[in-house]
Amino acid sequence: MSSDSRFALLVLKTDIEPHMIKNFTSACKFFILVFVFAFVSSTSSAQEISTDPAAIKAGEGIFNANCKSCHKVKEKLVGPALAGVDERAPSIDWIKSFIKNPPGMIASGDAYANNLYKDYKPTMMTAFSSLKDEDIMNVLAYVKAKEAEVPKDDVIKDPVPGGENTEAGGSDLLNLVAIGVVIVLLLLVVTLALLISSLKRFLDQKNLNEEEKEVVHSPITLKSALSSPAFIFIVAFLVAALGFKTVINNLFAIGVQQGYAPKQPIAFSHKIHAGDLEIDCKYCHVGVTKGKSATIPSVNICMNCHNQIKEGAQTGASQIKQITDAYANNEPIKWVRIHNLPDLAYFNHAQHVVVGGVECQTCHGPIQEMEVVKQHSLLTMGWCIDCHRKTDIDTTRNAEYYDKMLKIHAEKKGSKAPFKVEDIGGLECSKCHY
Amino acid sequence: MRLVKNLFVGISAAALLTACGAGGNDQGTEYAPNMYHSVAYEPYSQIDDWEAGRWVTSIEYPKLDSVTEGHAEYYNSNNFNPHKMNMRDPAPNTVSRNKQGWLPYRLGKDSLAYAAATLKNPLDSTASVIADGKILYETYCDHCHGAKGNGDGKVAGGAEGEGIKVVVNGETKTRNTYNGIANLRSDALKGISEGHIFHVITQGKGLMWAHGSQISPEDRWKIAKYVKTLQK
């Protein structure tokens, strides 16, 4: 029996089914058909779920491409778990026809399909009419193979590739260099000691008087070394210099919050989200291309993932629970603001990110490596101005606008003069202070 | 001895000043604090302590009632909003319109079939729209749906679907992955309309939550255009 004729039978079956409930004779016809159908099914060798590795492999590909988004083998996801589906469902052919046209099967009044729909309403399975019968058989082979697999909850022993190894390599090199320097210094000391003793021996061979002998063999004691004017001067100078440096540094630190890394109400890690998972900064900080503030994500943005992910590898459930609670109770989360520009200065994110094309990391530092966010830059006026003096303007993205400007600039300052942010008013007081 | 005295004075001054720098939970010393704190409402700088900055307060802010004194210098909250938040709800019975004059999208989550059949992309398939769509896709979509739309982004567990391994206290653990991420290039989704994509981004579908609050309607249409090029 070819697959074509089985398909024809199915079509016939669907045509008849709506009448089945009302009409006994049609029901009889239906049962006969089902009987014939079952007979056909049992005789057909294609209904055996294959254990052939090739079929399982092929099935895995099809499963991952089409089914994975809604089904898991052992757990319920959007749709039911697929393990045991071949025994649970009325027949293999039922599975095939359901996959190809779920809405049609439900509309036809098929009891099993309708029960299924009742459990998952209003979600309706997508119709996969493009899947061939053998594709579906391969998927079933994969499901069966996966079902039999023993869950492996053992911990993976291999070290994590990347980061750590290179870091270890770097510190090894540093150690080697340090050891080398120490060896060189020791050699120097030994050479100097040898030099002194040979010089002394040389002087001893000459005929020296008593005074000269005393000078040559004068004992260097700890006390004489400590009370020498040279030593006192060096110590006093070092202490004074260090003290002066500390005073200056700290005076400059007033009003500068570089290094500020407050504890947040939730131990949110940028390293996990932006680093490991490579979620774009703008996915959460949606305002950064639109306005002054980069915006702190509202809880619904957190919930886009954390409606499902409730446990972190580092902190378990305790931290993520605060998000889900905040969402459930409609409570704002009180994040601590880190970057505070004084009210007397105006800064706009969109202007810098969209027009200037500045990367987040240019000002915020390696955010994707920070477990706790820390203010990376000075955020002083000197720091702003410095960047405005050094940064070239990319005139290619809005050539129409900049062409005239470049012409005037070339006339005034010469054709080779660099075109920096300061040349378009980046140093004007009233751009930021008004 | 005078030298020692001088050194002592210098060092204690330096030690005192170290308290000025910022670090950890310490914000450091502010210079001219009453010029730093905004009188007008500022986003993300809400201070709801009525007495904060009383020592520098130079203006008499209006009294709250006959007894309570006006707020202090740093206070920056709206007493009339829930949680004293600074942001305000839009005026009732008004709708926002964007640059193009579009009205807000009103179809509900269950209207996917209707949206897919009727919505037309108002943007043309120009190279710049598709290029914008690619940038937006890489911002909002690819960490789940993958760079090529195969449903294999890092959040979905990567190409192997096994998730990202991390070492926590010497123990290797797997980061949790998000289930149910659609393969945009599967046969079942190849034929979907741009309206379908727009609706799903806006309202979500299956295990995907709504992204309408994050992505503007115009950007959603651009993403829809780009996703169609991925599906070819």
TrEMBL record, chain B:
Residues 128-231 form the Cytochrome c domain. Keywords: Heme, Iron, Metal-binding, Signal. It comes from the Bacteria. Residues 1-24 form the signal peptide. SUPFAM superfamilies: Cytochrome c (SSF46626). GO terms for molecular function: electron transfer activity; heme binding; metal ion binding. The keyword Heme applies. This is Cytochrome c. It comes from Pseudochryseolinea flava.
